[in-house]
């Protein structure tokens, strides 16, 4: 009755690993093809290297940057801003999401304002934050928080509201008081929603940091790109984008690892991992 | 009155849902301490609704509920409830699901887990304590839910079609197991099923609900078959067959009525 379950799981996992080298090879092939095309087009002059840079130039610049200490200072600042924005936005989203979900009057009164606040394009807030908080990291953190908060908030709200009524009734029959319901039922349910939006939340924290830097800062990856743009250094711009991409990939896979560890109880987890 | 002695007493319970649908209309039921009562009725008649009232999860529109003589106000503190649909917490393993009731009542975690393991053994899930609900079959989840309910040693056990997801063999094993557990310390049991044979084989008394809307109790039958019983063997006895014939004659009309109503809708 139960024996088949385990081998089946193993087989599914094995199938993914088996196809993984092939998949990676194909993905690398696409990347290589893209660089080749770019190289050929710029080398033959069909695309002006001044506007489009050249792949070799970009790689060379990136390698050179990676060897300097200044680069890591910029990277570190962007990383710090991202982490702070994510942490503050997530904690605030969880606390306020819970509060709203458990206090129907509060959520009913504030509902239109929350929706309105979420509808504001965050980029227009960047100068305001810079005005309030200066050109240091905190104006970027604020921008990241303004993006991350709403994602987490809506997910926690949903997670608390959508707890199955039967599970709730069962938990109450088992003798849980409201504090225990919070710990054993509402929190796990809400956290599963938070984790399912983790990729988006981390991504938005980074977007907030980089856009903030881009619009006005003295350090960070976004600042470097803005600077390169200011002097028409397309190689620098593309190199900055390349670094940003690598950075996102690293952060995203770290999030995936955490997610699969913490959401082991969810049936979808294994499927999610395999598609990545 | 009987209300002072009965473990569970529902008087004149009527349930009208928002929207005006009356599921139960004036149903009364007394369950004595140690009595095993089954409620049988066509699908949708209001059996789960009735049980929710007994659990204190649902306030009846009118009527009163007494538990060991005390008027019920809020949740029924003496009742364990095994729900018809999935009620395990998906984020807890089978062991944690079974142990959590003890934990929230103040048992030390290590003790609670040890007792949970013993209960998992008893329902045949000894090797599956580390599984999450989604890693178990429907029948395994039912058995875990049974352990989760009984570990708290409630004086009144409310069971809503607990075994309908199981295959016939496992089901009979579980039925016998339940009877054995029950005879050891004689809890009051209210057992809902749509299977008349199961009801007769298990119970001291079978209560028949009419088809909804406005379901009423239309028959009560004392089942005086000898105990201890084996649910598989007792089905072959003459006493069983006579009872079955008599009750089925009453129930058939209601089933047809209920069926006609749902298929018209
Ligand atoms: N919250 C509700 N609001 C409105 N109607 C409801 C609600 N809950 C149940 N009902 C209705 O009350 C009737 C009885 O429902 P109930 O779940 O008690 O049936 P049941 O006898 O347990 O059926 P089954 O054997 O299929 O489990 C049904 O017609 C159902 O549609
Ligand atoms: Mg039901």
Automatic annotation (TrEMBL), chain A:
Pfam families associated with the record: BPD_transp_1
Gene3D superfamilies: MetI-like (1.10.3720.10)
Keyword Cell membrane among record annotations: yes
Keyword Repeat: no
Record-level GO BP terms: transmembrane transport
Compartments where found: Cell membrane
GO cellular component, one term: plasma membrane
Residue stretches spanning the membrane: 21-41, 83-101, 141-160, 231-258
Entry keyword set: Cell membrane, Membrane, Transmembrane, Transmembrane helix, Transport
Entries under SUPFAM superfamilies matching the protein: MetI-like
Domain ABC transmembrane type-1: 75-259
Bilayer topology: Multi-pass membrane protein
Family: Belongs to the binding-protein-dependent transport system permease family.
Protein name: ABC transporter permease
Biological source species: Roseiterribacter gracilis
Automatic annotation (TrEMBL), chain B:
SMART domains for this protein: AAA
RNA-binding is among the record's keywords: no
Keywords of the record: ATP-binding, Nucleotide-binding, Transport
Record flagged with keyword Coiled coil: no
Record-linked InterPro entries: AAA+_ATPase, ABC_transporter-like_ATP-bd, ABC_transporter-like_CS, ABC_transporter_ATP-bind, P-loop_NTPase
Xref: Gene3D superfamilies: P-loop containing nucleotide triphosphate hydrolases
CDD domains listed in its UniProt record: ABC_NrtD_SsuB_transporters
Annotated transmembrane regions: none
Residues in ABC transporter domain copies: 8-236
GO molecular function annotations of the record: ATP binding; ATP hydrolysis activity
PANTHER family per record: ALIPHATIC SULFONATES IMPORT ATP-BINDING PROTEIN SSUB (PTHR42788:SF13), TAURINE IMPORT ATP-BINDING PROTEIN-RELATED (PTHR42788)
UniProt similarity note: Belongs to the ABC transporter superfamily.
Protein name stated in the entry: ABC transporter ATP-binding protein
């Amino acid at each position: 009755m139960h024996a088949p379950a385990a081998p089946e799981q193993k087989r599914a996992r094995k199938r993914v690993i088996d196809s993984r080298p092939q998949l990676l090879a194909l993905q690398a092939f696409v990347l290589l093809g893209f660089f080749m095309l770019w190289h050929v087009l710029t080398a033959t002059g069909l695309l002006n290297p001044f506007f489009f840079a050249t792949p070799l130039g970009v790689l060379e610049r990136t390698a050179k940057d990676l060897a300097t200490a200044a680069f890591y200072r910029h990277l570190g600042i962007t990383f710090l801003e991202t982490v702070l924005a994510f942490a503050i936005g997530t904690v605030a989203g969880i606390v306020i999401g819970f509060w709203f979900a458990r206090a129907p009057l509060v959520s009913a009164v504030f509902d239109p304002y929350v929706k309105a606040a979420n509808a504001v394009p965050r980029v227009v807030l960047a100068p305001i934050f810079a005005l309030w908080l200066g050109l240091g990291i905190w104006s970027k953190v604020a921008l990241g928080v303004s993006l991350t908060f709403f994602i987490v908030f809506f997910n926690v709200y949903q997670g608390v509201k959508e707890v199955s009524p039967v599970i709730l009734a069962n938990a109450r029959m088992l003798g849980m008081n409201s504090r225990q319901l919070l710990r054993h039922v509402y929190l796990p349910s809400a956290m599963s929603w938070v984790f399912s939006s983790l990729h988006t939340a981390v991504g938005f924290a980074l977007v907030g940091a980089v856009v903030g830097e881009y619009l006005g800062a003295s350090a960070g990856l976004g600042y470097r790109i803005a600077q390169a743009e200011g002097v028409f250094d397309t190689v620098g711009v593309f190199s900055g984008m390349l670094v940003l991409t690598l950075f996102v990939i690293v952060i995203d896979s770290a999030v995936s690892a955490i997610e699969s560890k913490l959401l082991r109880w969810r049936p979808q987890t294994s499927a999610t991992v395999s598609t990545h | 009155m009987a209300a002072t002695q009965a473990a569970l007493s529902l008087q004149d319970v009527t349930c009208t849902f928002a929207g005006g649908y009356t599921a139960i209309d004036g149903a009364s039921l007394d369950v004595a301490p140690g009595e095993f009562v089954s409620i049988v009725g066509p699908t949708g008649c209001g059996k789960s609704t009735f049980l929710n009232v007994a659990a204190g999860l649902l306030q009846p529109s009118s009527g009163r509920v007494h538990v060991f003589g005390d008027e019920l106000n809020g949740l029924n503190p003496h009742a364990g409830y095994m729900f018809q649909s999935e009620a395990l917490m998906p984020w807890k393993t089978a062991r944690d699901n079974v142990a959590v009731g003890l934990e929230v009542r103040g048992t030390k975690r290590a003790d609670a887990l040890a007792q949970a393991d013993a209960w998992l053994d008893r329902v045949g899930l000894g090797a599956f304590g580390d599984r999450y609900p989604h890693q178990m079959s429907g029948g395994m989840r039912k058995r875990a839910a049974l352990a989760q309910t009984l570990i708290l040693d409630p004086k009144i056990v409310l069971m809503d079609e607990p075994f309908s997801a199981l295959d016939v063999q496992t089901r009979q094993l579980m039925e016998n197991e339940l009877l054995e557990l029950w005879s050891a310390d004689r809890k009051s049991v209210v057992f809902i099923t749509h299977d008349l044979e199961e009801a007769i084989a298990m119970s001291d008394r079978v209560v028949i609900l009419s088809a909804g809307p406005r379901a009423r109790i239309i028959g009560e039958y004392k089942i005086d078959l000898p105990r201890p019983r084996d649910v598989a063997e007792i089905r072959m006895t003459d006493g069983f067959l006579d009872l079955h014939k008599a009750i089925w004659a009453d129930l058939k009309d209601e089933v047809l009525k209920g069926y006609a109503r749902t298929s018209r809708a």
